[in-house]
Amino acid sequence: MPIGSGGRCPPLQSDPTGRRPMFKSLFLAALMTLGTVTGALAQGGGLPQELQHNTRRMQGDQITFCLDEQSVGAPFDHRVGEAIASALLLKAKFTRAPSGFGLDAQGYLDELQIVMANECDVLLGISLQPNFPYPEWASPTRAYAQVPFVLAVTDPSYNSLADIPKTRKLGTALGSIGEYAFITYNQQLPEADRWKRLPYADAKLMVKRLKDGTLGGIILWGPSLSRAVGGDPAKAGLRVIDTSPVAQSFVLVGALVSSRDTFLRSQIDDAIASLISDGSMQAMLDEFGYQGKPGPQ
């Protein structure tokens, strides 16, 4: 998802780690990651027309997807793109989405607008935000997946967040939706009853501190955890447990198309709906070991 971050709040690309510009991180992404680009996205764009060819790239039997291959959710988003193209009886072509920008996302929106106008039809791996003021040149699709933030521990006696003693420190993905949900709940407790939170920008370091006993639990986007441990968390000695009493946070992962192409957006939405209704989307989530569920009907 270009959803590489961990659901930065609010993210642009579906990179919910929140460290990549989602969800650019969410809108990721980011995309998830779930980041700081959302504000920039809302500002829209004022690019000179000579930089925008505004030519449609769909060549009869082909649709071109933009994807940030460095994002946490990229393999899943790539698979979804292939499935969308197949549902539309088209060949899927993939090209690189803008990446490598700093957390302030300076210049990202200009680059994205150029790419969307000149190089690709659909930007995959976007962290969708309800009632978000998208720029006039961009239009979001419906969500194709809902991927949660998870709570991982090593202690076999913990079955939910409520079981973790307040004397244990908790790690959270810095600037993420999951961190925000935890902070909101924790601050409602009497000061003496609150957990101490340590924010992390590096998921691998957070896992390391969990394993060495520094942390009693860690809250981060599910795909970020899988990447940090190189696969199944259980095989790495971690247990994913209930976040209760904190409500579990989800990143809504979708795509972005040019606002001038309403027909394409409707076709993408129909394809996503079909993949959800026939069970294909859930199968893809299971294929990648995601604990999420298909997007809302």
From TrEMBL:
Q: Which domain of life is it from?
A: Bacteria
The entry's protein name is Transporter substrate-binding domain-containing protein
List the SUPFAM superfamilies: Periplasmic binding protein-like II
